[in-house]
Amino acid sequence: MSSATETNSRHSILTSLIQWFDGDHPPRPVGAARDEPDEVDWLRTVPFIFLHAGCLGIFWVGWSWTAVAVACGLYFVRMFAITGFYHRYFSHRAFRTGRVRQFLFAFIAATSAQRGPLWWADRHRHHHRHSDEEVDVHSPVRHGFLWSHIGWITSRRNFPTDYSNVRDLAKYPELVFLNRFDIIAPLSLAFALLLGGSLLARFAPQLGTSGPQLLVWGFFVSTVVLFHATSCINSLAHLIGRRRYATDDDSRNSFLLAMITLGEGWHNNHHRYMSTARQGFYWWEIDVTYYLLRLLQSIGVIHDLRPVPRAAYAGRPGNTKDPVEGMRSGNPHSQRS
Questions:
Q1: Pairing assessment for the beta strands 302-303 and 96-97 based on DSSP bridges
Q2: Is the bond preceding 140 in cis, omega lying within 30 degrees of 0?
Q3: At what angle are helices 117-129 and 99-110 packed, to 10 degrees?
Q4: Which residues are CB-neighbours of 50 under 8 A, at least 6 positions away?
Q5: Does residue 324 have a pLDDT over 80?
Q6: What is the structure's pLDDT at 185?
Q7: Residues 224-234: what's their mean pLDDT?
Q8: Where are the domains of the chain?
Q9: Closest listed residue to residue 230, CA positions, set 74, 124, 79
Q10: d(CA 150, CA 76)
Q11: Rounded to whole angstroms, how far apart are CA atoms 262 and 260?
């Protein structure tokens, strides 16, 4: 018995190590993973912990306006890639674009270390089907703030991608590859920052930066802040703010969250009409992601942005069960108006 336990333990350790690089290892039914205990897999999450620990590097590398500007710029660009493409495009198909462009933006979003585009879309579609139900993996109403904000992503049962839930995306092998080996994108960014900072230190010393400094600020600090800002939509957007629509979950609208996530804070609007490309329904509901999507549409990068249905402006609806009916039926394109 002891030998069998030892073998299983070694297998589990090896599996966790391989999963740092291969998100689809080992190939097995998703249901088997969903039966795992809902607890932190500490070994599997070592890269995630290292990402946070890397922020302490600021005490060694110092700071410069160049490094801070790079960190802020990468936060903005990658937040848009997450909100505009991981969320509104891959999860909800709120507009259309070409195959090369969808991969390019998927790669940019993947540099955020929030795993691959198909995993992200799979988990988000599941969230909409079961929002604030017991099986909603990041519901603060059911599982508390801390678990909904960060705990759920460290649980072994939530690591695999349910490809049956993203068949429309899984037909693209390049997206499947990026999803499986999602670590390639953040490592590429980290290397580019290290190299770029080293070149600036040599050829533009007046900028006062270096390779290690750009790595710490542009990758570690920017990526960690980006992660927690995005996670606030899972956690705080179901706890603070106002509810315009009587959806069958606890989603809320928050100006503050909208500001730090380029428009994602209009969460109650989104849960009522999830397939529209716009989440701030009124002029005072600032939605930077939507403005940028409109810009991309005007220059031909994307097309067919889905508008806000007229019904959204027809007064506050009564308590109804239809806000997420399309997603609950398994059709990510469905939207009732």
A1: antiparallel
A2: no
A3: 90
A4: none
A5: no
A6: 98
A7: 97
A8: 9-328
A9: 79
A10: 21
A11: 6
Give the residue carrying structure tokens 């740092």: 20
pTM of the model: 0.89
CA–CA separation, 116 and 177 (whole Å): 9
| Number of Cβ within a 10 Å radius of residue 18 | 13
Asked whether 289 and 78 are in contact (CB, 8 A), the reply is no
Residue closest to 326 by CA, chosen among 287, 285, 288, 272: 272
One-letter amino acid at 223 equals: T
pLDDT tens-digit profile of 237-281?
A: 999 999 999 999 999 999 999 999 999 999 999 999 999 999 999
The DSSP symbol for 155 reads: B
| Cα 100 → chain centroid | 20
The pLDDT of residue 326 is: 37
**What mean pLDDT comes out for the span 56-72?**
98
| 146-165: average pLDDT | 92
The contacts of residue 129 (CB under 8 Å, 6+ apart) are 324, 327, 328, 330
What's the confidence (pLDDT) of residue 50? 96
Quote the DSSP letter at residue 266.
B
Helix ranges (H only) for 155-312 are 167-170, 173-180, 184-203, 211-214, 222-234, 255-260, 267-272, 288-298
